């Protein structure tokens, strides 16, 4: 079975960082991802995708990213289910980001080269190097 999600989009708000009771960092953010086609009226439509990342990636996303910046996300889809105190069942689909690549940086933050993010969250300008796996190696054309 395969559960792989690759997205490129813009953050709709500043990321929200929090810590579990065990001290594990978790960061939630929403990506605005344009669809690759237009609707009947000729307008571009956008999907808003809830995303979560953990540990070092969570801390780096919260530290370096802000509303409006573009990122690439590589991860998996998950459906969480829970029951409200009223007994109502709820479901939520979200992407669990295993890798987040920064495609833009905030202009107004004066960072030195020593302030670059740690592993799990990297800046890249080369779309061919976005992810570790080179899926084009085995393509016969």
Give an account of the 3D structure.
It contains 1 helix and 7 strands, in the order E-E-E-E-H-E-E-E. It is mainly beta and 141 residues long. The chain has a single domain (5-35, 44-129), classed as Nucleic acid-binding proteins (OB fold (Dihydrolipoamide Acetyltransferase, E2P), Beta Barrel). The protein has a 5-stranded mixed beta barrel. 19% of the residues are buried.
Largest beta sheet: strand ordering? 1-3-4-6-5
Oligomer status: single chain
Second-tier CATH architecture: Beta Barrel
CA-based gyration radius: 17 Å
Strand content: over 45%
User: Would you identify the regions where 5 or more consecutive residues have pLDDT less than 50?
Assistant: 108-114, 118-141
Broad structural category: mainly beta
Count of spatially separate domains: 1
Topology overview:
Blueprint: E1 5-11, E2 16-19, E3 25-38, E4 44-54, H1 55-64, E5 70-83, E6 89-102, E7 121-123
Parallel strand pairs: 4-6, 6-7
Antiparallel strand pairs: 1-3, 1-5, 2-3, 3-4, 5-6
Write a short abstract of this structure.
The protein is mostly beta strands. Helices cover 7% and strands 48% of the residues. The model is unreliable at 108-114 and 118-141 (pLDDT under 50).
Offer a few descriptive terms.
141 residues; mainly beta; OB fold (Dihydrolipoamide Acetyltransferase, E2P); 1 helix; globular; disordered C terminus
